[in-house]
Amino acid sequence: MPWSNQGGGGGGGPWGSPPGGGGNGPSPWGRPPGSGGGGPQTPDLEELLRQGQEKLRKMLPGGFGGNKSIQLVGVALLALWLASGFYRVQADETGVVLRFGELVRKENPGLRYHWPAPIEAVFTPRVTRVNRIEIGYRSTTNSVETRRGTSNDRDVPDESLMLTGDENIIDIDFTVFWLIKDAGNYLFRVRDPEATVKKAAESAMREVIGRTELQPALTEARQQIETGTLSLLQNMLDEYQTGIQVTQVQLQKADPPAPVVDAFNDVQRARSDRERLRNEAEAYRNDIIPRARGDAERLNQESQAYREQVVNLAQGDASRFSAIYTAYIQAKDVISRRMYLETMEQVMRGTNKVIVEPGAAGQGVLPYLQLPQLNRAPAPTAAPTVSQQQRR
Amino acid sequence: MNRTLIIIGGILVLGMVLLSNALFTVSEMQQALVVQFGEVVRPIRTPGLKAKVPFIQNVVFIDRRMLDVDPPVEQVILADQKRLDVDAFARYRIHDPLKFYQSVGSELVAEQRLASVVNSALRRVLGNVTLLAVLSKERAKVMADIKAQVNEEAKDFGIEIVDVRIRRADLPEETSQSIFARMRSEREREAAEARAQGQEQSQQIRSRADRERTVILAEAQRDAQKARGEGDNQAMKTISDATGKDPQFYAFYRTLEAYRNSFRNEDTTMVLSPNGEFFRYFGSLTGGAGPASAGQ
Description:
The complex is a heterodimer of chains A (392) and B (296). Chain A is of the alpha+beta class.
């Protein structure tokens, strides 16, 4: 078992260049079947031993001077065995070396050596890689479906629906990012740490949501939920000695569940309706009030104008009167007669005139003067009866 | 020479076989029991290279890591008669491999036993709490209670329970439906309220605006009338001040002006008696005439 791990981490593996590793002489198993073209990475020691034994057996019966070849074979075997201890720790890995199953040391990235197979074994977990676990959904980013164009995440309602503190149900998708903090604990203290993270995360999230009410969970408490879940989850994982550091809990989605999402959206719509109605009313107000103020200003200005007008007219009239009066006072009769006549002249010039002699008998009407256009019925005058004559 | 070689070889092989049977490694994730004829001779709890008597003794490896038990979803009835589908899981370590080996033997058996222990503890503890308690602050305490109870029983298996956690606690399908219905009705209530509030605010704003407009206009009219009145007042005062000296002449003067203004229209037809003052010289040279009468 340790072999498979070691081989996986070592890239080319110690068997990539066995003759170089062995250093001397042509060895019959310079190219062991396993190493051809970098195929299976796991060198099978038993297979090699078996081959070695077979060769040995072949040599022994017919072997004069076989002693030398046995020595050669032995040296080559030993060299190969020792060479199998080289391994490489990649930049994002840590090498964890076990001697007879016991953790003895940890190695930083680089080319390293450990005692070969039965003595020591090495694990190289990737300690700097941030892993992600999706809960409540499965993203299809790297799957076949993306290539077909459907990039929608698949929802997992069993994981995503949970009860809130006020006995509502909420649909939550979230992602947990974690990395290996302690490679030893990660490898040896817990079986299947990744599944542990997932279960613990689900449990932590549900506990946090169970303390939160629906409305805040949907809106402003998201940050709180993330941090609450993170600390709870980290506590659990520390308690389990998983050697895992949770770097982030990210809420992907916190929505009302699908069967009620319409009702929730309707609330949003109703809220925006409310806004709309208010805005419309404000628009109405903003429309009529300035107009009214304008109208008021017009009334104001008109009345001011009127006041100025009548005052000024009166002053004008008064001063004119005063002037005329000054003249009048000096020759009352003449001036008044002149004024009268001038006025009558002016009045008479412009109008149609019918002059009627008031007869003694009262009925007789004698038009002294008939003007060509007499088309309107004049109001009856005081004393005489007027007969009208119309001409067209 | 060949014979000696074979003998040496034989001894070597024999030694190898014995050695490989006597030595064994216990890895970091394991613990082991050395068993002799079915009887446990000693437990090994530390990793490393270990030895035993070859062929007579053999080794049973037992996991030392934290293991997981995930019993199936269990429907429990809470203290407030609500049903809840609870999915719990427990994490445990094999604490005493000897006891473990004697009482349950294998992990598979242990898991089954633990699952039923966990579920019965769940039912016992949850039967005494309400849904609200499970959901909220008491959840941790509930889980601690369950853990304590499970631990008590698991001790006999040489197992130490690290943690029992409720992963999911969901209402059964029918209850979920009624919760959805309630949530929906709550939202509908909220939506109706929001819409009505919209109407309310709209009417408020509009009616206030209308009122404001009316008031503005009325005030403006009031001020306008006031200004007009002031103007009229001042005008009359001016006139009366000027004419106070001779009201009769003013009457004469103003009447003439009124004549001029009112008969300005060309369409006016006057029916006159020739007796008027104006026609004084119309009939006679001396001008002895009566009163004039004029009409429109």
